[in-house]
Specification:
alpha+beta
Length: about 140
């Protein structure tokens, strides 16, 4: 459990001690400086954040784990026929997606832009929905499929 020191009026976090046994100023000293301490709360982490409104911690959804992959390696996940159809498309959104890919060396499959791009390819029948899982699978490493 942890100790949190916050501005009494606003709830803005000023200090954080990861252990309840860490030394903190006396309550009277904190109060004289417009601060309050609360203990017995879980430690900050990927799923725990400070909530200034309620002056406590809250559970949060951790950010997506980045899934970086070299762009060329990712493009090779498409079959030659899929790639040819995508590259030949005259759809402006597909062309923008391809232009962006042509100007990167690495992509992150966890971004909404990549997810939206692949879903758009499905929506315009350039990619079968059954292929999305293979195309968007998390890479084993930055250099491998």
């Amino acid at each position: 459990m942890a100790i949190y020191v916050y501005v009494t009026a606003t709830g803005v976090l000023q200090s954080y001690c990861p252990n309840d046994t860490d030394p903190v100023a006396l309550p009277s000293v904190l109060a004289a400086n417009g601060l309050t301490a609360v203990s017995g709360l879980p430690q900050l982490g990927p799923t725990v954040a400070w909530d200034p409104v309620n002056k406590t911690t809250k559970t949060v959804t951790p950010p997506p784990v980045p899934q970086p992959l070299l762009t060329g390696i990712w493009i090779l996940r498409f079959t030659p026929q899929e790639f040819q159809a995508i590259a030949a498309s005259t759809d402006p959104t597909v062309q923008q997606f391809m232009y962006a890919l042509n100007h990167t060396t690495q992509i992150d499959l966890s971004t909404q832009q990549m997810i939206n791009g692949v879903n758009f390819l499905v929506s315009v029948n350039l990619l079968a929905s059954s292929r999305v899982a293979a195309i968007m699978a998390a890479p084993a490493s930055i250099n491998g499929p």
